[in-house]
């Protein structure tokens, strides 16, 4: 049914889901589509998990504002329900044979008359994007040519929509690169987002960690690994910076106290790793220098480190840290 050229383009779009730079991959996917399907304008829209609105993540011929405005209006029409329910992405040129679907003929509707036709478009096609069983966005193509999106082209678009959905899903990417086990949440400026198939991160109930996550987001860093004790349970916690949606991915795994370290010993080790002297640590933690010296000796014995420098290197390497906001500059991975 498809030509060799079309199959090759579909394969390249599928391979783009492996790219780490998802923003670039989405732009390249639209470029591949342009080689196989006719369009003068295209928009790839992600469904924001917090607001429920569609946000353009890649576009040709549309500004982000235009796409947002058009999508906000389109989802209120009966034809959006046709898009979500249909097996094939519906098009304007196939409208006549599908006039019995919800809403009647698209060409006879106000949205076409006021928004589509005045822009010079005579045909268009829209597909609902689903990833891992969830509706995650839309793909929409428009062209000034009539009858451009017949069944063959709609079938081709449907064939690449799973890959487009994976590229569009705001909860994909780093989320699915996490370890198989463990709880996770996405923290954004608008709130905390539950992730599909994951229990929420319990450590975020601790206001101190929640504040640390916000401070980490402000550093522009890529990753931070740390230890957190909560209600007698230790957790290995990793913070990942996410560009889209803008936020911090928090992953936690319950763990035994590493090397049998106590919470106070982890605090002392963390401050030692920033280069603080025993006296400075004592002042910060309201302890005597002798007590700090004892904690350092315990850390060396428990970790098997031959020196204070070796112990702090181990702490940074393995994330055996409980940093405060003032320590982030030492430990955030760029």
From TrEMBL:
One of its GO terms (biological process) is regulation of DNA-templated transcription. Gene3D superfamilies: 3.30.450.40, Winged helix-like DNA-binding domain superfamily/Winged helix DNA-binding domain. It holds the Pfam family GerE. PROSITE patterns: HTH_LUXR_1, HTH_LUXR_2. InterPro entries: GAF-like_dom_sf, Sig_transdc_resp-reg_C-effctor, Tscrpt_reg_LuxR_C, WH-like_DNA-bd_sf. GO terms for molecular function: DNA binding. Residues 254-319 form the HTH luxR-type domain. Keywords: DNA-binding, Transcription, Transcription regulation. This is Response regulator transcription factor. The lineage of its organism: Bacteria, Bacillati, Actinomycetota, Actinomycetes, Kitasatosporales.
């Amino acid at each position: 049914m498809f030509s060799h050229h079309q199959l090759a383009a579909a394969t390249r779009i599928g391979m783009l889901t492996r790219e780490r730079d998802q923003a670039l991959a989405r732009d390249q996917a639209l470029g591949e589509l342009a080689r196989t399907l006719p369009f003068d304008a295209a928009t790839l829209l992600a469904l924001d998990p917090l607001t429920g609105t569609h946000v353009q993540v890649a576009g040709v011929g549309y500004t982000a504002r235009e796409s947002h405005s058009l999508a906000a209006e389109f989802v209120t029409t009966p034809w959006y329900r046709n898009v979500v329910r249909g097996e094939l992405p519906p098009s304007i040129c196939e409208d006549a044979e599908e006039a019995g679907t919800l809403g009647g003929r698209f060409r006879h509707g106000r949205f076409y008359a006021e928004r589509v036709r005045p822009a010079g478009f005579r045909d268009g096609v829209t597909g609902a994007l689903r990833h891992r069983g969830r509706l995650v966005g839309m793909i929409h193509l428009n062209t000034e040519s009539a009858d451009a999106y017949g069944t063959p082209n709609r079938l081709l678009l449907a064939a690449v929509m799973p890959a487009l959905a994976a590229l569009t899903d705001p909860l994909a990417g780093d989320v699915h690169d996490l370890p198989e086990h463990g709880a996770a949440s996405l923290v954004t400026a608008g709130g905390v987002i539950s992730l599909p198939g994951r229990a929420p991160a319990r450590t975020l109930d601790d206001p101190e960690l929640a504040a640390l996550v916000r401070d980490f987001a402000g550093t522009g860093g890529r990753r931070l690994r740390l230890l957190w004790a909560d209600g007698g349970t230790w957790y290995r916690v990793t913070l990942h910076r996410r560009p889209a949606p803008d936020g911090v991915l928090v992953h936690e795994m319950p763990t035994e106290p590493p090397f049998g370290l106590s919470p106070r010993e982890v605090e002392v080790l963390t401050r030692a790793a920033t280069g603080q002297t025993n006296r400075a640590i004592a002042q910060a933690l309201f302890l005597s220098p002798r007590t700090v010296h004892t904690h350092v000796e315990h850390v060396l014995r428990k970790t098997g480190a031959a020196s204070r420098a070796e112990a702090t290197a181990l702490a940074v390497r393995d994330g055996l840290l409980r940093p405060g906001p003032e320590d982030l500059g030492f430990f955030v991975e760029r």
